[in-house]
Every structure is written in structure tokens, then in C-alpha cells.
Amino acid sequence: MKFFRALDRLMMKLEEYILSFSIILISVVIIANIIAREVFNSSIFYWNLEVSKFAIVIATFMGIGYAARKGRHISMSAFYDFAPFMGRKVLSILINGVSAVILLGLAYLSLGYVQAEFAKGTVTPALQIPQYLMVIFIPIGFFLGGIQFLRNMWINIRVKNKVYLGIDAEDYNDQEKRDISHELHM
Fold first, then answer.
1. What distance in Å separates the CA atoms of residue 138 and residue 146, rounded to the nearest whole number?
2. How many CB atoms lie within 10 A of CB 99?
């Protein structure tokens, strides 16, 4: 059990570093390109679009698992928010399970895409980097997201008296009710 907790913490830190680096890289490259182009009238950063695209792909797909872990993924919660506790519990298990199956299916399909890119041997125009290195993050991100949704489903099955949106995120509906109850008793 300690091994899995350590592995989980390591994965979370790795995801945080990758996401942070990707966002910072996008910002630096775009700002440097604008300064070079507008101030110095230079196109020295001719590769900025490729690097930015690469970083956006990494941030987008690696962010799936991180958002699922933190319960920050996009959700349509109109029915969920108005459901009683048991309804939210069942919905959270169902939604996380279906999301996991879909993401793991997409991971499998996108792995085929990566293999096709590898077989074609295409490279990016400016930097001549193999195209498959850019798209390899798509199945990785889908797989990590699927695993996180499975974990979210499992914690909701295992813990009976709370609903979790993510491993690290308790349901905001329950939190708001506790906050209001706490304020009324003060």
C-alpha cells in the first residue's frame, strides 16, 4: 500500500511539473516570438508554432488525469447538484465509471494513431522532430485520465458517507451544507 501511495504522489508531482512546464513554455515562446517580430523585425523563432502546438498537446492530454484527480474536470451538473445524497453517490459512481471506460477506449484507439504516425515516419516541418513524439502524449493522457476516473469511482464505492468528485476533492454540495450548518450554529 505504501508503494502505491508513493507512486501516486510521484505521478501527481510529475503531472504538475509537466503541466507547469508546458504552460510556461507556451508563454515564453509566444512572448519571445512577439518581441522578436515586433521589436526587432526578426523571424528567428520560426519554430514557435511547432513548439507551442507540442506544449498545448502535452498540457491538454496530460491535464486530463490531473483534472480528474482534483475533481476539476468539466461537468454538466444540473441534475447532479439537485439530487439527494444517494442520487449524487450513484451518479458519481456511474459517471466516473463511464468516463473511465470511454477514456481507456480512446487511449486504445489513439495508440493506433501513434503507431500509424510512427509507421509513416513523418516529421514536423520546422524542427524535423518525428510526429509520433508529439502525439504519444494523447494515449498517455487518456490512459492516466481513465485510471483517475476508475480511482474516483472506487473511492465513491468504498467510502459510504461522502461523495468525492476526485480523489482529492470532496463534493462541493456536501461541503457547502457543512459550511452553512457551521455558520448557523455559531
1. 12
2. 21
